[in-house]
Amino acid sequence: MTPNKKATINDVARHADVSKKTVSRVINNEKNISAATLHKVKTVIQQLNYSPNSQARGLASSRSFLLAMIYDNPNPDYITEAMHGALSECRLQGCELVIHPCDSTARDMDESIIEFIQRLKIDGAILLPPVSESERLISKLKAVNCNYVRLLSVDSDNLDHIIRCNDRQAVSQISDHLVALGHKNIGFIQGPKAYQSAIERKEGFRQALEDRGLTLPENRVAMGDYTYQSGMECAEWLLNSSRPPTAIFASNDQMALGVITTAKKMGINIPTDLTVIGFDDSPQASRVWPALTTMDLHISQMSQMATRKLLTKYNDDKALSASIQTEFLPTFIQRQSTARPKNT
Amino acid sequence: MTPNKKATINDVARHADVSKKTVSRVINNEKNISAATLHKVKTVIQQLNYSPNSQARGLASSRSFLLAMIYDNPNPDYITEAMHGALSECRLQGCELVIHPCDSTARDMDESIIEFIQRLKIDGAILLPPVSESERLISKLKAVNCNYVRLLSVDSDNLDHIIRCNDRQAVSQISDHLVALGHKNIGFIQGPKAYQSAIERKEGFRQALEDRGLTLPENRVAMGDYTYQSGMECAEWLLNSSRPPTAIFASNDQMALGVITTAKKMGINIPTDLTVIGFDDSPQASRVWPALTTMDLHISQMSQMATRKLLTKYNDDKALSASIQTEFLPTFIQRQSTARPKNT
DNA sequence: CTGAAAGCGCTTACAG
DNA sequence: CTGAAAGCGCTTACAG
After folding, report:
1. Which CATH architecture best describes the domain A62-166+299-328?
2. How do residues A191-221 score in pLDDT, each as one tens digit?
């Protein structure tokens, strides 16, 4: 990479007149170094503009300083946020992020992930839904002794391995809002059943409505798949029913955006004729008219905490470890797509 | 990583009864191996489920099999597409992608990028705009002998180092469309001058209109910054002028989306009262109502070609190298946001 | 076509 | 608190 040869640990050792083991000690922040030696070595490191070769470190210590983000998620906004959070923590702790999208419908997904992890000696894997929900993958990860943290909607693993988004409590906030506005005839658009979040949001919402004296009849539940297209279709179905709902809660923003489009096409005004609520707080939510009321899932923070949790193994900073938050509660973001129903 | 010890080159050599150098030859697809030996080694590799340790390979050969994608781009859709393209090529050629967002306004951006590249011994860097436009960074990259390819709107480097999007020809297609529809009073929303693409699109559009006997007066040019917010503001300014344009071309989709929102707020109907054209073909373009007419930039393909170009150095597949396309012409995507002006 | 030796730049396990 | 030796799993440069 460098013509003007990059400095190595040997150069530093020679210049500082110590053994390379001592240099290694300062690189790795080990204890038991005299202040004088520490200072001397640090000075030389500066002078020589030395930075340790991570391949050599990795080969010797069987660490790679590489974390992997593994996902199969059609939603780029989710991925982007997740990367952002993971990256912040990586910088803090001197790691790098390798991204590894995959196809969870492929037969050999698990094998190819494992091969990838072993080839790069990945220090730890951050698993995003729906990949994070595959117990088969998890058991293979354990078999090769690979550290991992899963972003999930439910507590289905040891707490060392999950960061959880409490979708149930989140949808209960939404039902509060809807009930407070006076809506009684509410439609719901569900996500694909292959996603745990879709189930949690649906069951949580149904439960929350019942707790508040309302119901969510099956003919008010449309089956979407988290896409814009499905949001449009579900909205059409709900709004063309004999007694159309006065509010629609779509279990993600893409589908809610589809609801808005369909309503516009049908000449239905939002929010006066129809209240629409999404779930995600995607960038587009604030960039439509009317701006979409939704839930902020704090994906970036969740991903950062997942990364921090992954690195506790290599990090003896107690304060940092203690700062890890395992469960996240989404935040309600009120914008312009909700209002009281017309005849109330 | 593995409790049940992963196989090494030595295990393969022993089982196949050859030297490890021979195993190395098959790993690296070298010539001059007898068919019998090749077969024998390959079989053992399969049996042992062996995959070479990329750290050891890297340390010995000063390669890392790691490519970096370096960017400072507020547009997640662009990044996502670029990653997708790069990743496809990485898989093809056995590399991995490390992502490295950065802040191009930071004083130490160049230094931190160089440090990162040297620390990981990155095999090559894919530079996205606007980072790709920094000549200062390029010269530092050259100084440390780091291979790179830039995604750019202009030819400002050796052809080995660029993949170009021909923004000028693209906007000329847009002016064709607008002129064919009969628009004469056209507004333009410019991107931030720090982006070369913003300049190319503006100058290209002005030139194209002039070539067709029209003009783009300065009072029809609004200064945006590629954000939705600026698109709204610019649209307000243009539409509140004494003789509002019958068509607005925004130099990216985010701003065009802002135009649509402002038009809606003002009660202006699209496309009958106002034609709107964007540039990017972002996912949202087809998810608003009316769906946005725009240009597909082929970012994923550009990024894939950039990656392929980067890897030619390590790859002696002539056919693959010959398949590299250096210049891309965006494709016009007609949707529902354009129509003839009202009184024509 | 194949192999033995040395070395890439670090860390581990020990010794003192 | 510090260091000498061996080794991580490969490739390079040679030799034959």
Report:
1. 3-Layer(aba) Sandwich (3.40)
2. 999 999 999 999 999 999 999 999 999 999 9
C5 C1' – B156 CA distance, angstroms? 47
* Closest protein CA to C1' of nucleotide D8, residue: A60
Determine the distance in angstroms separating the CA of A332 from the nearest CA of chain B, rounded to an integer: 22
Q: Looking at residue A177, what is its pLDDT?
A: 97
pLDDT of residue B17: 92
Q: Which two tokens stand for residue A123?
A: 């220090």
Euclidean distance between CA atoms A226 and B301, whole angstroms: 26
**A55 and B52: CB-CB below 8 Å?**
no
Q: The domain B9-52: what is its CATH number?
A: 1.10.260.40
Strand D reaches within 7 A of the B27 CB: yes
Asked if residue A188 has pLDDT above 70, the reply is yes
- Report the DSSP pairing between strands A331-333 and A294-296: antiparallel
Domain extent listing, chain B: 9-52, 62-165+299-328, 167-297
First vs last C-alpha separation in chain A: 71
How large is the average pLDDT for residues A128-133?
Answer: 95
For residue A30, which nucleotide's C1' is closest to its Cα?
A: D1
Q: What six digits make up the tokens of A251?
A: 């279990």
B window 225-264, beta carbon within 8 A of A:
228, 254, 257-258, 260-261, 264
For chain B, give the mean pLDDT: 93
How far is residue B315's CA from residue B295's CA, in Å, rounded to a whole number?
33
Q: How many helices (H) and strands (E) would you count in chain A? A: 13, 12
The angle, 0 to 180 degrees and rounded to 10, between the axes of the packed helices A109-120 and A135-143 is 30
For range B205-214, the mean pLDDT: 97
* Contact pairs from chain A to chain B, CB under 8 Å: 120
| Per-residue pLDDT tens digits for A233-265 | 999 999 999 999 999 999 999 999 999 999 999
Architecture field, domain B62-165+299-328: 3-Layer(aba) Sandwich (3.40)
What are the distances in angstroms from CA B229 to CA A255, B219, B254?
A: 23, 20, 8
Which member of A53, A98, A265 has the closest CB to residue B97?
A98
Per CATH, which fold does A168-297 belong to? Answer: Rossmann fold (3.40.50)
Question: What's the predicted TM-score (pTM) here?
Answer: 0.91
Q: What is the pLDDT of residues A283-336, one digit of tens each?
A: 999 999 999 999 999 999 999 999 999 998 887 778 888 899 999 999 999 999
Chain A contact for B46 (CB, 8 A cutoff): no
